[in-house]
Amino acid sequence: MNIRENLLQMFKQAGGEFISGEEISRRLGVSRTAIWKHIEEFREEGYVFEAVRRSGYRLVFAPDVMIAEEIKVGLSTRVLGQKIYYYPSIDSTQNKCQELAKEGAPEGTLVVADQQTEGKGRLGRVWHSPPGANISMSLLLRPALELQKCPQLTLLTAVAVVETLHEFCGISAQIKWPNDILINGKKVCGILTELNAESDRIHSLIVGIGLNVNTLPEHFPEDVHGIATSLRIEKGEPLRRVPLLQQILTRLEELYDLYLAKGFAPVKKRWETYAVTIGKKVTIRTLQGSLSGYAEGIDESGVLLVRREDGSVTKVYSADVEIHG
Q1: Regarding the domain with residue range 68-274, which homologous superfamily does it belong to in the CATH classification?
Q2: What InterPro entries does the entry give (predicted)?
Q3: Tell me: the pLDDT tens digits for 140-188?
Q4: Binding site: which residues?
């Protein structure tokens, strides 16, 4: 941990009690002037401290900001999120994470932003992410996998998000193949995986997650107003983003470790539990055209299996899926 992380952890562990400047200086091995400067930096980021002579400092209020130090304090992962880049505003966390990957950033590197101005969705769409409301993040993975198995990590991420939502805020969500998380039929989260690889090996796989946390109905763009939702809308109250993000990382690492140890089968079983697509009549739209049928499930690679009217089964690798009924 750096000084800022240690300082923030000290105040959070103090539970609102005062910590003397002398005690902070002794434990962190820095001068009182350096402590004061760090506290002033936190104040500029929205933290509220009370300073009393001879008593020291105490943390009165911590804002819902996703700075690296806030995420690191209390994060229990071994790899994911151990290196964090935070931006108040950025064009796209995916773009930045790809840059870092090319520069040799380690697996688990996390890019998170309070606002994206050019957030990425699938098939070149824009993912809307207003300031201060949602989780916009991209995670760098470097799995030793065959290229054809990479789509499985999109499905794995979807399972991690759904299970986190249930545990963190008691919300039952479902997965619409391949990358949408739905609550009561409306989209709350999108997942985008982007691959950089050669024919024989993966250089990097960037997993992007856009989760609507505190967006209000009036803040959704008109084109998604009737099909999008947020956790705040569904719960009727705002949620803090940092502990939710921490729990997503924890569950994602658990599933990733399970996947690397035992393959896709145990993840596939959990994915099927939450899938809204299976057994439904669907229309599949790809760049090559459209087809209709019944979604029978996914194969061992994570490919969607659609049974046509003539009884044949079509494998769908990437598409938009419209569910009927």
Answers
A1: Bira Bifunctional Protein; Domain 2 (3.30.930.10)
A2: aa-tRNA-synth_II/BPL/LPL, ArsR-like_HTH, Bifunct_BirA, Biotin_CoA_COase_ligase, BPL_C, BPL_LPL_catalytic, HTH_11, Transcriptional_repressor_C
A3: 999 988 888 888 999 999 999 999 999 999 999 999 998 899 999 999 9
A4: 116, 187
CA–CA distance, 133 with 191 (Å, rounded to integer) = 18
The topology under which CATH files domain 3-61 is Arc Repressor Mutant, subunit A (1.10.10)
CA distance 158 to 77: 18
Give the whole-angstrom CA distance, residue 13 versus residue 281: 53
Q: Cα dist. 153→61, 145, 264 in Å? A: 37, 10, 9
Report the phi/psi class of residue 79: left, alpha or beta, with left for phi > 0 and alpha for psi in -120 to 50.
alpha
Question: Residue 142: phi, psi to the nearest 5?
Answer: -130, 65
* pLDDT tens-digit readout, 184-206: 999 999 999 999 988 778 899 99
Q: How do the domains of the chain map onto residue ranges? A: 3-61, 68-274, 281-324
> How many CB atoms within 10 Å of residue 12?
14
Q: Give me the percent of the chain exceeding a pLDDT of 70.
A: 96
Nearest-angstrom CA–CA distance, 306 and 313: 5
Residues of the chain below pLDDT 50: 123
Nearest CA to 102 among 186, 203, 18, 212?
203
CATH of the structural domain 281-324, one choice from 2.30.30.100, 3.40.50.620, 3.30.2010.10, 3.90.1150.10: 2.30.30.100
User: What is the three-class DSSP state of 212?
Assistant: coil
Residue 96: which of 139, 126, 65, 130 has the closest Cα? 139
Give the residue numbers of the binding site for biotin: 116, 187
Give me the pLDDT at residue 325, please.
64
